[in-house]
C-alpha cells in the first residue's frame, strides 16, 4: 500500500508525490486537517476556502482514477500512529512544503517516526534547495528544475478498500460554516484560465500597470494563490511561458513576469534556509529597534482607519478582495514599520491573514525587507501621500472605496488634509518618517552592523547582483 499525503500541492498533474505514489496502483490519498494549523499565525478562512476549491477539483479528478481524498482529522503525530497501526508496511509519499513553525515541527516529528525505514518518500519542491543548500548554484539549479519534464497524471487505483477515515463530501459539508465566498476561486481550471488570459491579452502593459492598485487587478497574472496552493505547478507556468514567449507581442512584460517566477522561489528559499526568520530579523541588530506594540496603532492600520485615505483605501480593498498588488503591499508594510514604528512580528501575521495567496516563504522575507531589518536591502520608506498622487491622481479609485470623500478635492485627499471630513491622521507623516530614517541609519553606519550584514548576504543574498 502507498499512502500519499496532500498539503499544498493540490493538483493532479506534475505532482511528484501523487505520481510516484500511484505507480503500484494500490494507494490512498489523505489530506490532514489539523485545526491548530488553520488557526496558526497568518492562516485564515479565506485561504481555507481557496484550498477547498482546489481539493474539490482534485477529488473529482481522482474519482475518474478510481480513487478519492480521505480526511485525517488531527495532527501529523496522530497520523503516524494511525499509519503504524493500520499500514505498517506502507510507503508514504508527500511533497516538501516550506511553511511556518507549526507545520515544520509537526512534519519533522512525523519524519522522525519513519527514520531509517526507507518507507518515507519526500519530493522536493520546485526551485527550492532542501538538503544541499548552496546560494552559488541556486540560479543554475532553479533553471534546471524548471526545464525538467513534467509528471503525468497519477495512475488509476486498482484497489478499492472501504475507508475508516472521513470522506471528502462529509468534510465539505462540515466545512461549510468556515468557507467564505467572494474571494479568488481556486482549482486547476481557474489557474489555467488565468494563465491563458494573461498570455493572450492581460499582460499587455503589465510591467507598468502592476504598480497601480486598480490597473493591477486586471493586468497582473493573479496566479499567486494558485502557486501558493499548487493548483498549477510553477514549472508548468514557466514551460508554458517559454513556449508562448517567441510569438508574444508583449515580450517586455513577459520578461518581467518571468523574473517574478524566479523571485518566488528565491524568497521562499530564505525561510527554508533559516526558519528562525519567522520570529527574528535577518539582521540580528534590528530586533531591538521596535520594542513595543501600540495596540491602537495596529488596530487602526489593519482596519483601514489611519486617516490617510489612500492607505486606508488599499487596506479596505485588500480586506474585501483578499489580494492587492506588490507596490501597495510594500507601502502598507512600510507604513506599519516606519511611520507607526511597530514590530514587524506583530503586524506580519495580521497582514498575512488577509491574503488569499499567503505564502510564508515570500511574506515573511518581504515583510522584513519593507521594515528595513534584513541588513542587505536599502531601507525604503514609502510616502503614502506621494503614492496616492502617483497611483490615483484624480482620487477616483479612493472615492470608489471611501464614498464619504466623494465631494472632496483630490489635492486635499492626496495631502490627507481633511480636517473634519475624514478620520484624523494617526501620526504625522513627515515627523514619523524622519524618526524612522534617523534611527535606522544610526545603526546601519557601524562596522558591526556591516559585518553581520555581510553574513546575511552570504546566506540569503541573490548572487545575480554581485
Ligand atoms: C509585504 C509583502 C507581502 C507579500 N506577501 C506575499 C504572499 O504572502 N504571497 C505571495 O504570493 N506574494 C506575496 N508578496 C509578493 C507579491 O506582492 C505578490 O506575489 C503579487 O502581488 C501576487 O500577484 P500576482 O500573482 O498577480 O503577481 P504577478 O506580478 O503576476 O507575479 C507572478 C508571480 O510571481 C511571484 N511574485 C511576484 N512578485 C513577487 C515578489 N516581489 N517576491 C516574490 N515572488 C513574487 C508570485 O508567485 C506571483 O504570483 C508580498 C509582497 C509584499 C511587499
Kindly describe this structure.
The structure is a single chain. This protein has 466 residues and is of the alpha/beta class. It has three domains: 2-123, 3-Layer(aba) Sandwich (Rossmann fold), CATH 3.40.50.620; 188-268, Serine Threonine Protein Phosphatase 5, Tetratricopeptide repeat (Alpha Horseshoe), CATH 1.25.40.80; 278-465, DNA Cyclobutane Dipyrimidine Photolyase, subunit A, domain 3 (Orthogonal Bundle), CATH 1.10.579.10. It is 52% helix and 6% strand. It has 23 helices and six strands. It has helices spanning 16-22, 35-38, 45-63, 76-86, 101-113, 138-147, 168-175, 188-202, 206-209, 213-219, 224-229, 234-244, 251-273, 295-302, 309-321, 326-339, 344-354, 360-370, 384-391, 396-401, 410-414, 429-444, 447-460; strands at residues 2-6, 27-33, 69-73, 91-95, 120-123, 166-167. A six-stranded mixed β-sheet has the order 5-4-1-2-3-6. α13 crosses α18. The model has no long low-confidence stretch (mean pLDDT 95). Flavin-adenine dinucleotide (FAD) is lined by residues 210, 220-224, 227-228, 257, 260-261, 263-264, 267, 325-326, 329-330, 333, 355, 357-359, 362-363, 366-367, 370. Flavin-adenine dinucleotide binds next to α11, α13, α16 and α18.
